[in-house]
Amino acid sequence: MFKGFYTVATGMIAQQRRTELLTNNLSNVNTPGFKTDQSTIRSFPDMLLSEIGGARIPTQEGLNLHYARPIGTLNTGVYMQETIPNHEQGQVFETNMPTDIALMDTTMPVNQQTGQAGTILFRLQNAGAGQGETYTRNGNFTLDGHGYLVNPQGLYVLSEQGQRIQLQSDDFQISQDGFVYENNQQISRIGISYSANPDLLIKQGDGLFRTNNNQALPSAYTQNGVAFTMQQSYLERSNVDSGRAMTDLMTAYRAFEANQKILQAYDRSMEKAVNEIGKV
Amino acid sequence: MIRTMITATNTMGQLQEHLATIGNNLANVSTHGYKARESRFNELLYQQFNNDKLDRAQRQTPVGIRYGVGARIAQTQTKEKQGSLQSTGRDLDVSFTKERQYFNILMPQGDNGATRTVYSRQGNFYISPLENGSGMLVNADGYPVANAAGQSILVPNVDQVKDFTIDNNGQFRVNYANGNELAGANFALGVTEFKKPQFLEHVSGTYFGLPANMAQLGYAENEILTPLNGANRGQIGLQNRALEMSNVDMSKEMTDMIETQRSYQFNARAVTMGDQMLGLINGIR
Q: Is A28 exposed, middle or buried (0-12, 13-18, 19+ CB in 10 A)?
């Protein structure tokens, strides 16, 4: 059987996955705080091919000598190995809503191992008691009936001390360093967490991130070298570049098509093998 | 089925809703007292695929690949920003000069004369003549305007009235041709300040109301709004002979509309591509 037959099939599946991922990026062009997903495609682990042969040594007994000569390595396909969110800062825009907050990175330390900068996120309380924390970059919040600052799904926004933030009305101010003031009194401070290696964060849907081991992230206020500001009545745009996403989508589509053409070529080869080689 | 198409169609439906909100704002660009509404998107669910069980290669991210299935509208909020004032010179026109303050309007409910208190910032009022020669202060829809006690405001002997004034703290005064003046507590316009404007239900037009299931949800009325009565009446900010214009920013809405239409096109294009990919699969043989 032709090995390449299955190789191109895996190529088609990998490219299909890429288009699915890119479509999700395109869909979230208008989602505040959305982080573009990037993908890596990796080939299957290599196989070592060997030539198995034998030689007959003309002795009286008739001695057979077997050998296996290595030819080289070959892999039998590709798959989508990773989806990596790009935590780059998005643009900010004004909304005139007091419950909207944009996070703006000033300087983030670069991780020595990965060469990537860390990221800061809002702290939210997970639904259900004792479920820990979840993180988001989407600062589109609102007040619930009791005056707690919540996200659109009703998850409580936590303060620096890990408490919920309760306000009397939506007439409040947030300073650039995160302090919340109501009637000229300091109420609380918006909780911001720092992730030194954002690649380890897992996307959960609804714009939420969780840590790999469900451990809480440390506060960003006390981290060395982490500088950021907050802007009330502003939101961070999605960092999807729609032009690039569309270009990538077309590239993935054409790669899919190329794989399909090779598959057809294999099919025709097989057709010949079946119908013409055996013709009498 | 290719997930591309599901992702894109999910999002297209929500973009259409977004466009509807923008369209409603644009339609109300000249409605007095209208507050613009704004919807914001959020991601949909993420699904994890563990597709590399046997590969022990180094990786940056936790095991598996995750991708989402599109976007949806997370919430639609009312923008409480003050609209600009338009001077009309009409006695019964009144405009708020402070944000989050609303007139109390008695909206009829059902046929048995029951009313529901709704809140509006639209301040073009009228006197509706009654059978006995008196008149009632009503808004543009003919609904009675409530006083601070929640009752409708009745003006006796309307045909002898010289003019009306409404002062900056919501005191309604009727001046008769013979020099008499009618004012007092019964003529103080009922004004409510919203503490949590996003909690209120958008009833229709410029009207907002408390949701009917508020008690079930475990919320009390005083958490949501404060009636400005007694000493608090000093906080009311009103301007007579003027109307508050809609706070819709037309150029912003047009920009949003173009942006939304383009997003819609992008997603529609993704559906086409998904379709062509299915075509390629079918065309293998």
A: buried
